[in-house]
Amino acid sequence: MSSDVRRVSDRLRILSEARLAGEVPGHRSRAGAGRAVAQRLADLAAGVEARAASVAPVWRVLPHLPDLAVGDQVAVTGADATAGLGDVQPEDVVWDRAAGPTPAQVSMAAVAAELAATRRLL
Questions:
Q1: What is the 8-class DSSP label of residue 25?
Q2: What are the start-end ranges of the E strands in the chain?
Q3: Residue 61 burial (CB < 10 Å; 0-12/13-18/19+)?
Q4: pTM: predicted TM-score of the whole model, two decimal places
Q5: pLDDT tens digits, one per residue of 78-98
Q6: In angstroms, rounded to a whole number, what is the distance separating the alpha carbons of residues 21 and 93?
Q7: Which residues pair with 102 in a beta bridge?
Q8: What per-residue string of b and e applies to 82-94 under the rule 16 or more CB within 10 Å gives b?
């Protein structure tokens, strides 16, 4: 997953402000697509961190940063998610914001698919 995070964050970092503001399917802009995947990565990190808890974590909303900072936001949330997954086994149950308790491999696959879809939009 870290290579996908790097690809998306690097691509977002090199886009001009005008390109970042351009609309893409499913999002108001390329930056919006980046924000959505950054939020998904932050949610994965929170769900992994709270995996031993009996209740879902308090899901936090990422701050709305300027378009030119979205690549950095993806990089940071991706690094947090990747670091959190370091000692998680695929069958371990983690919290998923949309689905509740979910096997880590399922949550990771969903995030990987979202990263790939975002990369194609950029």
A1: T
A2: 93-96, 100-103
A3: exposed
A4: 0.95
A5: 999 999 999 899 999 999 999
A6: 37
A7: 94
A8: bebbeebeeeebb
